[in-house]
tRNA(His) guanylyltransferase (Kluyveromyces dobzhanskii CBS 2104), 237 residues
Amino acid sequence: MANSRFEYVRQFEVHNVLLPETYIVVRVDGKKFHEFSKYYEFAKPNDDRALRLMNAAAKNVFMQYRQEMICAYGESDEYSFILKRGTKLFNRRSDKISTLFVSLFTANYISLWNKFFPGVELHYKHLPCFDSRCVCYPNLPVLKDYLSWRFVDTHINNLYNTAFWYLIIKCGLTPQESEQKLCGTLSSDKQEILFTECGINYNNEPEMFKKGSLVNSSGEIVHIDVVKRIDEIFDGF
Ligand SMILES: Nc1nc2c(ncn2[C@@H]2O[C@H](COP(=O)(O)OP(=O)(O)OP(=O)(O)O)[C@@H](O)[C@H]2O)c(=O)[nH]1
Ligand SMILES: [Mg+2]
């Protein structure tokens, strides 16, 4: 490369290199999906098309970097990609990894949109955007806790949202009344309210809604109890 007197400005570029021998998690999250889901009239509380689109986009990212991956896990508008401890991808540069994953994910989301939302055109003022971050986890127990945290979060959010929306849709409560009814309730109370007042057995809700989606090391999308099977998921890593 030609050396010019301007070359020195490269010295101002800093590279944030992620700690060696740590597990890297890249989490992408939909930007303002509260509005995005409203604009495209996603079903409440879960839109099967939207979740399957997230899974398909994540699977393509996963397969493209399969050699570097352990698994990926998603719910709602987020996906976590869990990379192997020894990955040398982009010399572990945080900005490179984070921006590549999020742009690849977004590109796939947009290119697959019509497959999952046939006949629904994306409006240029309402395009899907995602942010992303890289986080290092120092050992397997902490990494297992990370994935368990996302799984438990899925369960808590989904049970709340399911009860909240069924009380509105099936029982005719206003959003304020529904919120008030659920205020301070435990998981078991929410399941009981759903059963007695809405006629819904939470156990019969789709597995993808209750458990989120895991792209396993073979690249399959499964909906499993992540906490119960956490050791199996990370076996060999
Ligand atoms: N109706 C519906 N909404 C969904 C679905 N999945 C995600 N969302 C919406 O996406 C939001 C995701 O939560 P957040 O990431 O905390 O909210 P956000 O609006 O994306 O905000 P930022 O991430 O801070 O930009 C949910 O609160 C819902 O409003 C779905 O399947 N159906
Ligand atoms: Mg979001």
